[in-house]
Model the fold of this input.
Amino acid sequence: MPDTVLPGHGSGGKLMNDLIHDTIRETLGSESIQLDDSAILQLPGRQIAFTTDSYTITPIEFPGGNIGSLAVNGTVNDLAVMGAAPLYLSCSIILEEGLPLDELKRVLQSMRAAADYAGVSIVTGDTKVVPRGKGDKIYINTAGIGVFNSPPQRHDILPGDAIIINGFIGDHGTAVMAERNKLSFSKGLSSDCAPLNMLIRQVIQSYPESIRFMRDATRGGVASVLNEITKDRPFGAKLIENSLPVHDEVRGVSELLGIDPLYIANEGKVVIIADGKDAPAIVEEMKKVPEGKDSAIIGEITDDYTGSAYITTRVGGNRMLPLLIEEQLPRIC
Amino acid sequence: MYGSGTNSHRQGASFMTNEHVLAHDAEKLKQYQIDSDICIMEVCGTHTTEYFRTGVKDIFPPRLRLVDGPGCPVCVTPNHYLDHAIALAAQKDCIIATFGDMVKVPSSYSSLARESAGGARVEVVYSPVDALDIARQNPRREVVFLSVGFETTAPTEAVTVQQAREQNLKNFSLLPGNKLTVPAVKALLDAEEVNIDGFILPGHVSAIIGTNAWKFLGSEYNKPAVVTGFDDHDLLKGTLLLLTLISEHKPHVLNEYTRVVRDGGNQHAMDMIYSVFDADDSEWRGIGVIPGSGLLLKEEYADFDATKKFTVDIPEPKEHPGCRCGELLRGLILPTECPLFGRGCNPEHPIGPCMVSTEGPCAAYYKYGR
Done:
């Protein structure tokens, strides 16, 4: 078997069959991936949730995960935040000629581990190979199906509701940025890449009526989620700086580069808007699940600054948290 | 959590935690009694944004006004410099290496971002030394680093030139655009256009040049000033200290940022700067040419001076009609007083540099103001 991806791996011939059988199905699970043209699935429940997402990242491996775990957890989380229980994923891979097969195997192994941990099956897939220089090592698309065991978690948000997060913010984006730029001071940074379905199931089961809204805070970070929630609405979203969980390493790197952890991507964080009076109990419930052990109330929905997100700083002043126009750029000095 | 929250400060006889000191100082600033209007100026782009970011500006007492000085390196760089950089970028086989802030700044007729989209090669670096790596990796191309910044960045830029010479890198040069803060503050005061009661002085710049370099503010101009750090504790303490000096009519120059800044500065860094550069007259956006306010490469480093190495046609510079960045940088107006602010000029479509840089006053007001 060759040790890098070759054009022939996408040919439909023996090389491709070997890759699918010996590498992909062997790793992802031959008992689950169908060889037929489509997977045939059993779906309990009345309504289903269906989503798709494509994953590209440089570098494909980073502290705390790789593009494989990202592709599983990202799609699992898109289903979970709707209140659906994720069951099945597809996995479509585009490989660049020359990718070492060892790297591919590590990505697949981490996909498998992430799927097993989240309790989902990868049931169908596809592989294509593009010539050297026409891709960035590996692109993965995963589509996912989840079922609703209770109604979708979308209710009207009201002033007095609490804003909850399940742990430290900014870890993923900072770890990737540090790895990409080979920052020498990046010790201790690690992506938070994790599935949120177990955590969310725990919350929904215990407090089915108290959750107004949930969204995973990926690109654009927590501030961007709060902007989506408040846009053109008759309420504002206030964060309390003193309550925000930010690792010292993340704060250090972001201060140095002049970027704000509130706008940095996460891959295992969900912003939950919940009834204010139940919020402390919800946080206690969340802490029982590993992905929620550092959960905290970080703010509230208010009548002030309607249509905007803002933060009350440590000195007690307010500052707006507008939607950013583009990626944050590091500053001069 | 934001802030370390673990250190303690001894305050009087009692032992106060960081949080207590912060809350105490914040309350003191909020309640500060001011009898007549006070105008203070910060001379550092990082202070511009940090006053907003920490919320300290939001708790200013009534009648206290903060104006922005010429402290954003990108903002004070005149159009002519960018026009020159773009003319260099248009040369075949040239790579422009620059800090990220410069990329979107409009020049007289274009911007590096637009030239890059049109095929010019523009690489964003985090440190000038990274530009040397690009030069090594591209031996057939000329790499020009856009050397802007104040006394804080100049030592690294000087080291970069020295390393280039030691490594015999023939395809590396820099376009000198460094500026010195002290002559600019002097020029502002000499122009007598704006009535400033006191200065919040730049922490990082002062770490290099030292508090003593600012003593003239008190002795020659009768203005109090405080060298200040950048976190919320620093900003509260620096502002309170300055207000006390102003209200007690004491034109002293004090140092709040003692954990970083010494009276004499960092002599090693200063020596490094002046081993490679000479101070010379330099043009500032909005202010014009200020004597002795820029850094040019010494004659012995002429091989690394892009202005001497390449002959390019630079178009006659022009300003955008209506853009008031110049007046802003002289402390004459606030960003919101520019007619273009938010109407035609925003971070997505900036007309002036003060809307582009993360340290630009307009960008800070646009992002955090309301």
